[in-house]
Design goal:
The complex is a heterodimer.
Chain A (H helix, E strand, L loop, with lengths): L5 H39 L5 H15 L3 H11 L9 H26 L3 H9 L4 H31 L11 H12 L3 H32 L4
Chain B lengths: L18 E10 L2 E11 L4 E5 L6 H8 L7 E6 L2 E2 L2 E4 L2 E4 L2 H7 L3 E4 L11 H12 L4 H14 L15 H13 L5 E5 L7 H17 L3 E5 L3 H7 L2 E6 L2 E6 L1 H6 L4 H13 L1
Parallel strand pairs in B: 3-10, 3-11, 8-9, 9-10
Antiparallel strand pairs in B: 1-2, 1-4, 4-5, 6-7, 11-12
Helix pairs in contact in B: 3-4, 3-5, 4-5, 5-6
The complex binds adenosine-5'-triphosphate (ATP) and magnesium ion.
Chain lengths: 222, 271
Amino acid sequence: MFDWKWEFAWEILPRLVVATGNTLLAAGAGYAIALVLGLFLAIAQRSPSRALTFVVRELVEFIRSTPLLLQIFFVFYVGPQFGIRLSPWMSGMIAIGLHYACYLSEVYRGGIDSVPKGQWEAAIALNMTTLQKYCRVIIPQAIPSALSGMGNYLVGIFKDTPMLSVIGVAELIHTANAIGSEHYRFLEPYTMVGILFLAISLPAAGLIRLMEGRVRRKMGLK
Amino acid sequence: MLDMSGFPLELSGENTPMVSFRKVRKSYGTLTVLDDLDLDINAGEMVSIIGPSGSGKTTVLRMLMTLEQINSGVIYVDGKPLTHMPKGGQLVPANERHLHSRRSDIGMCFQHFNLFPHMTALENCMEGPVQVLGLSKAEARDRSEELLELVGMIAKKDQHPSRLSGGQQQRVAIARALAMRPKVMLFDEVTSALDPEVIGEVTNVIRGLVSEHNLTMLMVTHQMGFARDISDRICFFYGGKIEEQGHPSELFGNPQRERTQQFLSAVREAV
Ligand SMILES: Nc1ncnc2c1ncn2[C@@H]1O[C@H](COP(=O)(O)OP(=O)(O)OP(=O)(O)O)[C@@H](O)[C@H]1O
Ligand SMILES: [Mg+2]
């Protein structure tokens, strides 16, 4: 029934390890973009400017209600029609970063909303600027309650990186596909990819939970 | 455009009050909370505001702290307009920049302390001086430790608020506000959220401020005995207006208005 070839598995391992590096890079870079951009999207939705709030809210809603795959295609294939020609990597990072920024902005928003009104008022009473209010008072308190959501999306973005294979980013699935069609064997590459994903996701989730507890304690929030 | 001609660009002269509310009106939708309020507070004066729930006491403080916008009238602090700024020889509503430049004269303590939970007591006090006033860490620490000493909290300076009792938190909050060196301090029911046995530790700190510092203070309180002891003047608010005001001995000893009499006897019965 099983006709698992250790030799073949051993032979393709180096290529898969390199591809794992690419997957991690894509996930890491996409997440970094999403973390920063998401924060801006969250804060923009609390701006005193009604127009800005409206535009950003609609954008976030739009991106959250359309598939990531479509967004990846859009940036990569439709972009050039508007004169925006980007490499697969660039397109992929922009699409996945923006997509997850929208989800993270909701997480941040929840975190920011959970900060009591009195904290904003205390910050005003100390005559803080808007930037100081966010950086020194609000965000440090919003992060602990946002951490679990942030962690979930880190694992989520990692598991969504295979979508980048459709535009030719040589991450794990793309590489496994290539190996499979070169050798007419798919069992070993796909199984190994599954194990690699598992080997990264599981400890990452545990690590995030550990960090959550540490941050909370450090902030004096029990 | 509102006619602002009745409001001078600045108040000057020898007896310029530290705080001046001029025809200040505040409403939420159709509910008028304060109606043409006129109230002057002199430099170094301690004024207590008393009155029934919903009479607008907190709103007075919040407007002065710029936590609420006013609908009309002008508030002056130290002779200069707070809620407005001069432009083309007239007063126009203040922008954030003007508020930022004037707000540093005012400090406030809240009923629920509102300390920053992610900072220790000392860090809470240093935050404003370092971030807002631009003091060096060393200067801010000296100033903050001195104030924590003053409020009797120096031993707990490295504790987070969650490890402090209500009375202790409120004392840290007072030190935090004082660290900004405001000219005017506002206290909104700072003992209302406290257990009876720790109220004294907070009122004693405020007593100390009255006798040793030349601060101008405006306090909302339900503690009549305390207000009578330390205030230079008591304002009795009723329905968004000052119904009666005067020296504590007059207002408590010989109230003129019927509503004041009713309020005071109701309060005495409750005790
Ligand atoms: N944000 C708001 N929106 C609508 N109404 C408000 C708001 N804040 C206060 N009010 C109303 O304004 C009135 C005055 O409120 P304020 O808090 O100044 O009363 P107070 O004298 O401090 O009362 P208390 O003794 O209960 O603290 C009340 O009727 C209150 O319901
Ligand atoms: Mg009140």
